[in-house]
Write a structure and sequence with these properties.
The structure holds two protein chains of two kinds.
Chain A lengths: L3 H39 L8 H16 L2 H7 L1 H8 L5 H25 L3 H9 L4 H12 L1 H21 L7 H12 L3 H29 L5
Chain B lengths: L3 E12 L2 E13 L4 E5 L6 H7 L8 E6 L2 E2 L5 H8 L2 E5 L10 H11 L4 H14 L15 H13 L5 E5 L7 H18 L2 E6 L2 H7 L2 E6 L2 E7 H6 L4 H7 L8 H7 L14 E7 L8 H9 L4 E10 L2 E10 L3 H13 L3 E4 L10
Parallel strand pairs in B: 3-8, 3-9, 6-7, 7-8
Antiparallel strand pairs in B: 1-2, 1-4, 4-5, 9-10, 11-13, 11-14, 12-13
Helix pairs in contact in B: 3-4, 3-5, 4-5, 5-6, 11-12
Classes of the chains: A mainly alpha, B alpha/beta.
């Protein structure tokens, strides 16, 4: 149905999309996980309330979250150039993806951690646990199922954003869909890329949920 | 030196609707090896009080001394070290749901950086103490309430604490399980000499295992002392409600609201005076009341008679309605006192619902 060039282009698209999504998720968590923990811990109901720190982290997350991704993509081009050396292609897309995903991930981490039973935290405090010990041995352990569900949602969202990045030459399946499907009216290629994106999302979602379920000890 | 010493402790919470004085002018001491009960209805401030003992709640004013150490003077690090010697168990167990039973018991040891092998050996010993050796690899979700509390007890004991604080530890359990947990606590107290402070709203818990008790009402300690003494001579209204009327604290308020209303199940009685008599084991040989009636040729009205287990000793109690005539009443009281029984004249307020 497609010639070899198109097939190899689509395969490359899959690889690029996976690369962008997974690397962005990884860096998104490198920034978003501590950010979310800090939000949960410094909250007035948290284990170490600090209204100034909470306010700063909270406002920063709100500002970044409220900028539409497409605008952010363009806004950060100078930064992308500075870090990656160019502003197009899969690697370049990772920069705006991380900037956009990190506050979103921070919010999900914050809400996962806030779900942890206050009584369990109090029990740890009554045993003389330090703030760091409570974070590492109680909060992250007890909320891990919710955190992993969060990873699944984050991957899904970043996958969608990576496709959007295609409009400004971001590479990956989204890029192909825009270039061939939109500009050249090659509907068949667009359908194939969309189907592939749906399949990828489905795979990530299923694997994520499976891992979350496997790790949950609350289910007998 | 008392192991726990609380002086003039007050705790005020500031809320949107103003300040709430949760605790006011609390004074009490707990001796080493004691089982000390703190009883009161929900909202009386007893949970706040127990949290002041390990500074999970910092008192607004007053001192808490553990083994002579004033907690207010400790740095945060010193406070954490102290907390490993003041363990706590909770009504809702508060186990780590994502960790196995043995990992839960090892948890405080890991916090203290004890080597894993050593921690595991210790945890196994404790699980056998609480009778759960076979549940080592189970997860809390697979256990019953009583089993979860046993795990919590094993976990609390892991750091070899000197004091065990129990915050309504049996309130979520059925009476049979409650009893088995209380027996376990009693045994641990006897075997290790650990000091236990028990917060509860159930008089049965205090009677079953406590040696001393403090009755908390609206943020104050209204009465405290040896359980036997308070059982025999309750002075405060709250103590009388607990002991004479057999009402647990949660029923106090309801009862107070009902005083003016009439309860159709209680017959209207016209005796002039009511007294309460407590029998101990020695005094149950002579049929005192029967002999008294024969002696005075006047009947008395037995309003209540009951036997309760107070710290393992059977205690009988009886409430009598005496006939009219002051001379007769005081003669009867003297007659009973002469036979070595404790007599107490009841106030109208306690028996008020029969008005």
């Amino acid at each position: 149905m497609f010639d070899e060039a198109v097939v190899s282009m689509i395969l490359q698209g899959i690889v690029d999309t996976l690369y962008m999504t997974l690397v962005s998720t990884l860096f998104g968590y490198v920034i978003g996980l501590p950010w979310g923990i800090a939000l949960a811990v410094t909250d007035k109901e948290g284990i170490r309330p600090n209204s100034v720190a909470y306010r700063i982290l909270d406002v920063a997350a709100n500002i970044l979250r409220s900028i539409p991704f497409l605008i952010l993509l363009i806004l950060v081009i100078p930064l992308t150039r500075a870090i990656v050396g160019k502003s197009t292609g899969a690697t370049a897309t990772i920069v705006p993806l991380v900037i956009s995903a990190a506050p979103f991930i921070a919010r999900m981490v914050e809400s996962s951690i806030k779900e942890v039973d206050k009584g369990v935290i109090e029990a740890a405090q009554s045993m003389g646990a330090s703030t760091m010990q409570i974070i590492m041995k109680v909060l992250l352990v007890e909320s891990r199922v919710s955190l992993i569900s969060g990873v699944t949602i984050a991957i899904g969202t970043i996958l969608g954003y990576s496709a959007m990045a295609g409009t400004v030459g971001g590479g990956g399946l989204g890029d192909i869909a825009v270039r061939y499907g939109y500009y050249r009216y090659q509907l068949d290629i667009m359908i194939v890329t969309v189907v592939l994106l749906v399949l990828l999302e489905q795979v990530f979602q299923s694997v994520g949920m499976l891992i979350a379920k496997k790790l949950d000890r609350r289910i007998v | 030196m008392s192991i726990i010493e609380v002086r003039n402790l007050s705790k005020t919470f500031v809320t949107k609707d103003g300040t709430v004085n949760a605790l006011q002018g609390i004074n009490f001491t707990v001796e080493e090896g004691d089982i000390y009960g703190i009883i009161g209805m929900s909202g009386a401030g007893k949970s706040t009080l127990v949290r002041c003992l390990n500074y999970l709640e910092v008192p607004t004013s007053g001192d808490v001394r553990i083994e002579g150490q004033d907690l207010k003077t400790l740095s945060e690090k010193e406070l954490r070290t102290l907390r490993s010697s003041v363990a706590m168990i909770f009504q809702s167990f508060n186990l780590l749901m994502q960790k196995s039973v043995i990992d839960n018991v090892m948890f405080p040891l890991q916090l203290a950086h004890v080597a894993k092998d050593e921690a595991r050996t210790k945890a196994r010993q404790l699980l056998s103490t609480v009778g759960l050796s076979d549940k080592e690899n189970a997860f809390p979700a697979q256990l019953s309430g009583g089993q979860k509390q046993r795990v919590a007890i094993a976990r609390a004991l892991a750091s070899n604490p000197k004091i065990l604080l129990c915050d309504e530890a049996t309130s979520a359990l059925d009476p049979q399980t409650t009893n088995s947990i209380l027996q376990l606590l009693k045994k641990i107290n006897q075997d290790t000499g650990i000091t236990i402070v028990i917060i509860t709203h159930q008089m049965s818990v205090v009677r079953e295992i406590c040696h001393h008790v403090a009755i908390v009402e609206k943020g104050h300690i209204v009465e405290n002392g040896a359980v036997e003494e308070i059982f025999t001579h309750p002075k405060s209204h709250a103590a009388k409600m607990l002991i004479i009327e057999g009402k647990d604290p949660d029923e106090w308020e309801k009862e107070q609201g009902q005083i003016s209303g009439s309860d159709p199940t209680v017959p209207i009685l016209h005796e002039a005076k009511r007294i309460r008599i407590v029998f101990n084991t020695q005094s149950s040989f002579e049929p005192v009341i029967a002999n008294m009636i024969l002696h005075f040729h006047t009947p008395v009205n037995i309003l209540k008679a009951d036997t309760k287990d107070v710290g393992g000793v059977a205690r009988g109690e009886m409430i009598l309605g005496l006939p009219e005539g002051e001379q007769m009443q005081s003669d009867m009281i003297d007659y009973i006192k002469a036979r070595g029984l404790d007599v107490e004249v009841l106030q109208e307020e306690v028996t008020g619902n029969v008005r």
